[in-house]
Amino acid sequence: MNLNILALAVPLFISFIVLEYFLSRKKHPGHFNLHNSVANISIGIAERLADVFIAGTFYFIYDYLQKNFGLFHIKPGIALWILLFLFTDFLWYWYHRLAHEINILWLAHIVHHQSEDFNYTISARITIFQALVRTLFWSFLPLIGFPAGMITSMLIIHGAYPFFIHTRLIGKLGILEYPFVTPSHHRVHHASNEKYLDKNYGDVLIIWDKLFGTFQKEEDNVPIVFGLKKPLKTYSFLWQHFHFAIELWLAMKTKKTWKEKISVLFIKPEKIDPALRSEAENIFRIRQVHSDDQMDKPLNRYVKWQIIMLLFGLFVVILFEHYLSPGFKVGFALFTVLTLINCGAIMEQKKWIFYLEFSRLVLTAAGLILIYPKSLLVLLLSIPFVLLIYYAKPIKKYYLDIIYPEEKKRI
User: Domain limits of the chain?
Assistant: First the structure.
């Protein structure tokens, strides 16, 4: 069978997340917040799913560039694998650094820094936009002459390492602190403390930060505050992805000439007026949330099981992607995105999720009818939808009563 073994990364990384959770539950209960973890994993699910559609495109780009524009035609060898690793890590450093210094690149990277937690779930906060920008930087590798097979293999290996440095459970690692990026170094990178801002951009090796003057060690007497300088305070799946794009648009509107407007995209993020965040939230009626709900509440159980089912579905879709039709993949992707939006809205106590739930049911029914176009199935699926539409108001009230505790209901 032609199975995609990369699907095994899903249960593997989830296992490490669960292990970290149980290890930290007694001694460090504040390391995990359910809603933050759901928001983090939701973004990772979307990115992994997007890879089903576009991962092969990246290989094609590298292969095309190497064969048509490569300076050399490099063949695999131990020395060249080491050289490729160093080039990859060096390019990562500059991609990462520029992503913090140029607004249009920060737009793709900011999602990774939004969470106020710091644990393995943070490593899932990678968007498709970030993957596209990375590809632009890594396109230098085939231009040098490295073949696509070597590049993609190295990116898989190189990309696995950062997962393990997103944790507070591991302290300083002695002599390993000198050549490698460690959890201690990366905690500094994710901090919003003034002392720690814009430091430690390395991915595997910390030597680039030391070489280019961006290294900062973790100080024992400086408590780290994780997240953005101006916390986002929302679990909205869409808002987490697009809020900075809206802030940039509002900033561009304040400029008079096109030159000034375009320059907004290339200046540093710190030069964007923080007040624009509040203006954007007012325009789109985004309400900041602060939740310490426990995992045993009905709302949280409902959200948890949706994420668990999506993770299982993601694993199956990636594993059997070569056997699934494009229509099925698109349908699953739409259902997944609706569910991720739904989970964020539930955690923010939005009443309009009832209509989103209805949309998911319609999508599921349509998918079943397309897969099994039988008249009896169409009839069986039509009856509950007619009843749902007819009794919409009482069903909506009953649904919200189940999902939300009475005292939590808000408009």
Answer: 5-212, 240-283, 298-408
